[in-house]
Amino acid sequence: MGIFKSVSDKLREMKQRAKNKKQFINNVMQSVQDGELTDAEMDELTGQYKEFGITESELKKIRIAAYVAASKTVKQDGVVSNEEY
Question: Which one of 32, 78, 84, 85 is separated from 17 by 20 to 30 angstroms, measured CA to CA?
């Protein structure tokens, strides 16, 4: 019975980690939705990625996706101001 509980626990952990990662990505995208990432948002996201166990490799990929999303938002009006640049 011990091996089944171990496997079951591992699967539960994997599902929770995937759920946490998805939530973190959603939080990042919501934070950059306006084209700006404030210090407060950055502090909150830093705490979340540590709490959720997001790896540096995963974080790099998420940062790239967030940068692309923020860039699209900033460029929507066709003008990139000095503040946005």
Answer: 32
